[in-house]
Amino acid sequence: MSNHLEAKQGDIADTVLMPGDPLRAKYIAETYLDNPVCYNKVRNAFGYTGTYKGHRISVQGTGMGIPSISIYAHELVTEYGAKKLFRVGTSGGMSPDVHVRDVVLAQAATTDSSIIHNIFGGGIYYAPISDFGLLDNAYHAAKELNIPVKVGNVLAEDRFYNDEMDRKKLVDYGVIATEMESAALFLIAAKYHVKAMSVLTISNHLITGESTTPEEREKSFDDMIKVALEAAIR
Ligand SMILES: O=P(O)(O)O[C@H]1O[C@H](CO)[C@@H](O)[C@H]1O
Ligand SMILES: O=c1cc[nH]c(=O)[nH]1
């Protein structure tokens, strides 16, 4: 048991998929895992462990934003020994090169989060990046599954509603999509010498206005989930 998870030691696998939405965790466990067992219901942040093609995998809802995922990532790694973390999340398209339902592999996560900058101070802007091995696995898993992916720099921003953000400049500098957690996940993984990456689905587009319903967001992003699961067992 940790501060926010009621799992017992051994209940959580080394490899954990981490959607922001706890109901997406339930959907992934019930749809893709054999014999899923729910190990956490604290705060409705559902967590399950089961097997995928014979490999033990957990899926843990992390909530929204850097403070929330930081709690779950920290406890999964330091209290339960998780070693490979895959965020599976929705994201807003920013570049004209991405469209609704595209799968994005986050190579790096640019951020405005003071949580990240405050760790280093002294003018340092740390560059949180995906683990190259996991990224490589996800890229090749997607190729084998015939699922097209875009690989690039994503924005992990502190505010969902943020009309002060200069998105055009970020797109000019290669940022393709926005979400709210990856920078913290990559930073925590670096701190504890474990591996992390993010597989995202474009759920809406901030420039074109394309969007999806909450039900679609909860259930229909199977390509992202398949890429993460296949990457996890490679
Ligand atoms: O779909 P999830 O994984 O929650 O991710 C995205 O959706 C939430 C905002 O709607 C933020 O958590 C953002 O990162
Ligand atoms: O953080 C997010 C997630 C999905 N869509 C957005 O526009 N922002």
UniProtKB/TrEMBL annotation:
- Which EC number(s) are documented for this chain? 2.4.2.1
InterPro entries annotated for this entry?
A: DeoD-type, Nucleoside_phosphorylase_CS, Nucleoside_phosphorylase_d, Nucleoside_phosphorylase_sf
Q: Which GO terms describe its cellular component?
A: cytosol
Record-level GO BP terms: purine nucleoside catabolic process
So where does a purine D-ribonucleoside get bound?
H4, E179, M180, E181, S203, N204
The record ties this protein, via PROSITE patterns, to: PNP_UDP_1
GO molecular function (one): purine-nucleoside phosphorylase activity
Residue ranges occupied by any Nucleoside phosphorylase domain in the UniProt entry = 16-226
Site positions for Important for catalytic activity? R217
- Give me the residues that bind phosphate, please: G20, R24, R43, R87, V88, G89, T90
What keywords were assigned to this record?
Answer: Glycosyltransferase, Transferase
Query: Which CDD domains does the protein's record reference?
Result: PNP_EcPNPI-like
Q: Name the reaction it catalyses.
A: a purine 2'-deoxy-D-ribonucleoside + phosphate = a purine nucleobase + 2-deoxy-alpha-D-ribose 1-phosphate; a purine D-ribonucleoside + phosphate = a purine nucleobase + alpha-D-ribose 1-phosphate; uridine + phosphate = alpha-D-ribose 1-phosphate + uracil
The record's PANTHER family line, in alphabetical order, gives: FI09636P-RELATED (PTHR43691:SF11), URIDINE PHOSPHORYLASE (PTHR43691)
Role according to the record: Catalyzes the reversible phosphorolytic breakdown of the N-glycosidic bond in the beta-(deoxy)ribonucleoside molecules, with the formation of the corresponding free purine bases and pentose-1-phosphate.
Which family would the database say this protein is a member of?
Belongs to the PNP/UDP phosphorylase family.
How this chain assembles, per its entry, is:
Homohexamer; trimer of homodimers.
Q: What is this protein called?
A: Purine nucleoside phosphorylase DeoD-type
What is the taxonomic lineage of the source species? Bacteria, Bacillati, Bacillota, Bacilli, Lactobacillales
Q: Which gene encodes it?
A: deoD
